[in-house]
Amino acid sequence: MDLYMMNCELLATCSALGYLEGDTYHKEPDCHETVKDLIRYLRREDETRDIRQQLGASQIIQTDLIPIIKQYHDDKPLFETIIRLLVNLTQPAIVCFGKVPKDKMFRHYFLDVVSYLQGYKVAFADEEVWTVLSRKLYELLQLDWESRQEEDSLLIERILLLVRNILHVPADPEEEKRTDDDASVHDQVLWAIHQSGFDDLLKFIASSDSEQQWCMHVLEIVSLMCREQTSEQLARAGQGRSAGEKAQDELELQAVRQRELADRQAKIRALGTRHSRFGGTFVVQGMKSISDKDLIYHQPLKEISQVSFDREKNPKRKPKNRQPMKDGDTTRRSTLSIRLFLKQFCEDFLENCYNGLMRTVKDNLVRMKTQDHDETYYLWAMRFFMEFNRVHNFRVDMVSETVSVRTFHFIETNLTNFYEMMLTDKDDITSWSRRMHLALKAYNELLMTVNAMDTSKDPAVRDSANVIKSNIFYVMEYREIFLTLLRKFDETKQPKTYLKDLVETTHVFIKMLERFCKTKGHIVVQKKRKKTKRRKRTAEQAGPPEPSEEDLNTVWDGLSGDLSTFIQGEGNLPQDVAPFDATLDTPLEEQRVQAMISIQDSLRSGDPGRALATLRAAREVWPDGAFGSADISQEDEFMALREICFTALPRPAPEQSEENPEPGDEGGK
């Protein structure tokens, strides 16, 4: 009964917005308050997203909200409220439900929401709507920071979020039935964006230093605009095919036709000339059945090789968690006009926006000013635009921001992190696998760009490529990452396209390394040193014995007075203490143990000032309470040092045999 009453209330609320008569929409006097009521309804929807589904079924966006935007866009309060409602209604289904539901009923609700979103996307393929949004966004961007209010900034963000939501809606190939070189719904939306001039506003925001706060929104929108395209197709759009390419296509077409004819003739021969109902029964001589007699075969045969015992066997089914992962990326070739538009957009974006935008996004990622997983858009943009630049018209200055050793380190770090999360986060393996694949593509394109720099005619560009290669070829992590990824490949967690890209990237790296070794006169080769077996420690080799309690009391009585003086601030503490050294390969936990031992050695050797200075320095490095809290009192600090002095700390065993380096560990080649 409650659900029925809710439907009645929603129906009455939607009716109170107004009505459409021909091409003219007549709004009711309380239309603004009605839109606010719909926003309140959405706040009270349950986990099935019932309000959202009912509004989608009533097609409120197609019949009411979009006509109001087109006709009453000068009513600022109403326009801002409707944009706010549209952002809520068009948010992705994965955001509404948190993740793709596994329950059958919730999965059904999830698919219903997706179908409603696809209907909204069709309605937004309207040039007039995008013209209104472009005009409003242009007016807001014209305001300087002194005259721009908080409401204006909120409206800018909501317009960008609305565009993101519309472009994020997945395509429905079965419903659209679009082939390559045909305009899909996504293409129609892109063309409306282009005709309204909204893409120029995106390029302005990306290139403006005063609009850097919207950088992540712009990068996400650009990635969604080009998600169905490949950079190679866009870079070569509008170029005529060469005679060699045409001849190759003809040869491939002839090969396919010959294959089809051969398969058809083989099927005809297999049927034979006899009618199918005279198949008969055959005795296979020389093949024994379960008895000692010849095998009797009750199927029509043309040749003896057709005898098979697997006709009625059911294939063994694999569990879902052991089936090979399928690749979820889908690409298609849009119409020529869309490809030419996106090609021009990418050219302008590379020339005016790429370096500045990527610098800002990288800074936000490092400072953790972004949301979770926003680094995927950075990796996508790096791979897409660097490949476009390399295929279309290679210029290093266009992508100079992302061609550096720091970029190699950033991708390698994220690649390792994605792999570790894929192993630990069992509930979200697919997402981590896709992020890992995206990082691998970015790494591959970075290597391809450095390889293209190596063949440049400009000596400065070749020198820069040599500097980068000298760094990545001598760092062990960059060399061994491909071997590790190949050994850890798992078809249940990673698709075959990932393995293909991994093999290609490894091939490019090895070829670059081979050419680098040939051009250099010598290269340092490091070999692992063999360790000799350690001998068992005898009693004499076990180190100095632990002092007795009487000896420790004597030592403490001698230094407690000076220690109290230092704690009260009446003495000068040494300044050259360093409990932590970031340049060492020693783990942080081992350095903490070493700091504790150093404090104890200073106390027992009669140097309380150095012990107190080391304790306070270690407290700043490890503020977890192991060396006392930050607001520790003088009495507690005194007792903490006494406890360290009297405690028998475990000390690392001394090395009894050194590593014997073999001749030729490091040398020239």
Brief summary of the model shown:
The chain is an all-alpha fold and 669 residues long. It has helices at 2-15, 31-43, 50-57, 60-71, 76-89, 93-97, 104-123, 127-142, 150-168, 173-176, 185-196, 198-207, 215-225, 231-235, 243-271, 336-352, 354-366, 375-392, 405-424, 429-454, 459-474, 476-487, 496-519, 549-567, 588-604, 608-621, 634-646, and strands at residues 18-21, 24-27, 282-288, 294-297.
Written description of the protein model:
This protein is mainly alpha-helical. It has helices at about 1-15, 30-45, 50-55, 60-70, 75-90, 95, 105-125, 125-140, 150-170, 175, 185-195, 200-205, 215-225, 230-235, 245-270, 335-350, 355-365, 375-390, 405-425, 430-455, 460-475, 475-485, 495-520, 550-565, 590-605, 610-620, 635-645, and strands at about 20, 25, 280-290, 295. The chain has a two-stranded antiparallel ribbon. Strands 3-4 form a two-stranded antiparallel sheet. Helix 13 (about 215-225) crosses helix 18 and helix 19 packs antiparallel against helix 20. The longest helix has 29 residues, at about 245-270. The model is unreliable at about 1-5, about 535-545 and about 655-669 (pLDDT under 50). One of its GO terms (biological process) is DNA repair. InterPro entries: Timeless, Timeless_N. Keywords: Cell cycle, Nucleus.
